[in-house]
Each structure stands twice: as C-alpha cells, then as structure tokens.
Amino acid sequence: MTRRNPIEDLALLRHEFGEHGGVNMSIEASSTFTVMDPHTMPEMFQGRKGPENAGCYLYGRHFNPTVYNLSRQLAALEGTESAYCTASGMGAISATLMALCGHGDHIVSSNTVYGGSYALMHYFLPATAGVTTCFVNISDLDAVRAAITDDTRVLYVESVANPTLRVADIPRLAEIADDAGITLVVDNTFSPLILSPAALGADVVVHSMTKFISGMSDIIAGAVCGSHAFIEQLMDLHSGPLMLLGPTMDPKTAAELSLRIPHLPLRMVAHGERALALAERLEAVGVDVCYPGLAGHPDRALLDRLRCPDYGYGGVLTIDLGEEERADKLMALLQNKYCFGFMAVSLGYFDTLMSCSGASTSSEMSDGDKAAAGIGPGLVRMSIGYTGTLEQRWGQLEAALRDIGCFAAYSRAG
Ligand code: PLP
C-alpha cells in the first residue's frame, strides 16, 4: 500500500522567487498579458502556446502565473501531474463534473457528501445538464457496483465524508471505477496530507481550500488536481468549464494561499492531536462521539492502512445529542458562556467551529436521505481548533455538557 508523504514532493518543488529576488513570489496582478509579436496571440488561441509551452499567458480567466504557481503546489500536495485553482470548492466540483458528464450521463455518488455537492448532483445537474445521480452507501462495495449503469461516467466520493466521517476505501473504489471504465473523483477537503487519493487510485482530486488549506476562514477557494490532459480539458477555450463558466481564482488570493501551504503540515498535526484528545475524553465520559481516530470507529483500520501516519486522523469530530434542540443548547453554551468555539459552518479554522449538520450544511438533503446516511437531527459537527490549552478546552466542553445534563443522560459510569 502506498503511504506517500506529500511534504517530500512539496519540498522538491521549484521555488518561485519574487521579481526582485524576494523569497516570496511576486503577485502577477494583471488580467491580461502582452505579446511582443502579433503572431503569438493566434497561436495561444489555437492552443499551440501556453504557460507550459513558451511560458505564454493570455488572459486572467485562462491561466495566471501566480495562480499557476499555487496550482503547482496543489499538484505536489496531491501527487498529480497537474492542478488548477478555482474561486471556490464548488467551482472546482461543478467544473469537474460538467467536464466529465454530458446530457444523458450518470454519476454514482456517495450518499454522504457536503450538502452543496449533494444539491449540485440531486437538483442542479439533472435540471440544467440532463445529468442524473444515484446516491449509494460507498462502504457497501456491492451496492456501488450495482449502481453503475452503461451511462455512468463518474464515481464521486469524499475521502472522509462530511459530516459522517466515514472513510472511502479509495483503492477498492478505484478498482471498481477502472473495471467500469469510469472516472473516480475524490473530494479530499477533510484530509489534506493525511490521504493522497491519487496515489491510492483516484483519477481526479478536488478541494475546498476554504477549509484546512486556508486555515483562517478568510478565503473562499478550491482546486482540481489531475492529469495534464484533464486540466487542459477544463481550461479549453471552446469547451472547458473552468474557462467558460469562469470560477477564476484571483492572483492575490493565490499568493496568500501559497504562503499557507508550508505550514499546513504543522496545522494538520495540531488539529489532529487536539481532536483525538477531546474525542478520547468524550468517549471516556460516555458521550456519543464519532472520530476516525477512535479505536471503535468503523473505518479506523481502513484509515490506518491508507493514511500517511505523520498527520493524525483529522480535525473533525461529531457528537450526537439525539435532538436538534439539545444540540443547539450545547452550541450556544459553548460559544456564549464558555468561549469554546463558534457556532459557524465551515472547518479547518484555528479556533473550533460548530454546526448542527442536519439543519445547516446537510439541510439540502431530504429527511429520508439524511436518515439513510446516518445524519441525525442532533448531530453536532465540530472542527476542532488548536488555540488555548487542551485542559482549558476540555474544561469548557465538559462544563457545557454538564449544563445540558449530558452526563445524567449519557454517562456509562452513572
Ligand atoms: N467539499 C466539502 C467536503 C465541503 O465541506 C465544502 C464546503 O463546506 C465544499 C466542498 C464546498 O467548498 P466551498 O465552500 O469552498 O465552495
């Protein structure tokens, strides 16, 4: 089994110095680019010249050198031939699916994916592109095989699912996709560095860089990582969804994100250590907690086989409080009384973010689909930050759980 450590590829990447010898690259803040010879322009439009061919740039919605450099970092992070960055994670996902599927085509998707991705496949793509999706439990490999039809083009999964934290068996899903001649697309937003989906067999890896990669909840951004041919297809002047739908990343955003990649490994370790410690303590006092690093998690052994061991088990855990009202009470106390974290969607921030998934980032799903995926009404997703001390944060969490009578209802110790 390949257990790649992405920081080795990142460390080997050609360093992009600033225009005046700065240790950080300059920002190419231009929306358009000059040519010295008028013949160069038609050559670029015909695809005969470009960033990889004579270092030619055309227009900022096509390629930009600063965004291109961040994209090289993303390709190194994911171990793919190429990558390109987008204005959001949804920009990356929608462009990828629209490049791979046309009218009459079909997607097999995990039944537990981010609510926006679910809505894209469940509502938007059938209505606007004639592309339909069958949602299945991807831990049931026979169900995945059975869902694939002659029209299926894509198998779509999240490496660690939002919010159920089930882990995709990427090597076996890749075998199924290969046998069927379809493309395996993996959203690796929850597990950068921990999992390298391309090394495990995925064809395309997408990211919401808004989350751990940014780390500061100040930027919306995404990326698509794959073969050169696929990235070229996305940017094609006549038919590329990144070029034509235009979810373009601003070069200033690219420059900022580029400076955050070098400390992503340190942040992932810090998120993982804090999340594991809190999950273990929650479990010890009898709270219904789910975290892929806990020995009892159904996919812990799978994750141990697939992950790079240097980055822990991720920064997200969930607590199931049974009812939404109880979940709301806990989050309000944690934010307003104890300063444990913030009631906010998203993840990967340096402080803890908490949301009740069923009523927020999975609310696009029908009640039946939520129940089938195991997203109960009282499920609180916590993206665990690394600020403060462990003892301080545990004290706050324990106090809030005590306030809502959690230990009376849930404690195994009595
Ligand atoms: N993928 C996952 C797993 C997510 O959790 C999200 C957002 O929460 C997205 C994609 C969408 O990313 P963005 O908000 O950057 O468009």
Mean pLDDT figure: 96
Q: How far is the N terminus from the C terminus?
A: 44 Å
Largest sheet: 7 strands, mixed
Structural class: alpha/beta
CATH superfamily of the largest domain, by name, is: Type I PLP-dependent aspartate aminotransferase-like (Major domain)
Report the CATH topology name of the largest domain: Aspartate Aminotransferase, domain 2
Spatial sequence of strands, sheet with the most strands:
1-7-6-5-4-2-3
Order of helices and strands: HHHEHEHEHEHEEEHHHHEHEHEEHEHH
Tell me what the structure shows:
The structure is a single chain. With 414 residues, the protein is of the alpha/beta class. The chain has two domains: 6-262, Type I PLP-dependent aspartate aminotransferase-like (Major domain) (Aspartate Aminotransferase, domain 2), CATH 3.40.640; 264-403, Aspartate Aminotransferase, domain 1 (Alpha-Beta Complex). The chain is 39% helix and 14% strand. The chain has helices at residues 6-12, 40-45, 65-78, 89-100, 115-129, 141-147, 170-180, 228-235, 241-245, 251-258, 264-284, 300-306, 324-337, 367-373, 390-403, 406-410; strands at 82-86, 106-110, 132-136, 152-158, 183-187, 204-208, 222-226, 289-290, 316-320, 341-343, 352-356, 379-383. The chain has a seven-stranded mixed β-sheet, sandwiched between helices. It has a five-stranded mixed β-sheet with strand order 8-9-12-11-10, with helices on one face. α5 links the parallel β2 (106-110) and β3 (132-136). α3 (65-78) crosses α10, α4 runs parallel beside α5 and α13 (324-337) crosses α15. The protein is globular and about 75 Å long. Residues 409-414 have low confidence and may be disordered. Bound molecules: pyridoxal-5'-phosphate (PLP). Residues 88-90, 114, 116-117, 158, 162, 187, 189, 208, 210, 220, 222, 361 line the site of pyridoxal-5'-phosphate. Pyridoxal-5'-phosphate (PLP) binds at residues 88-90, 114, 116-117, 158, 162, 187, 189, 208, 210, 220, 222, 361.
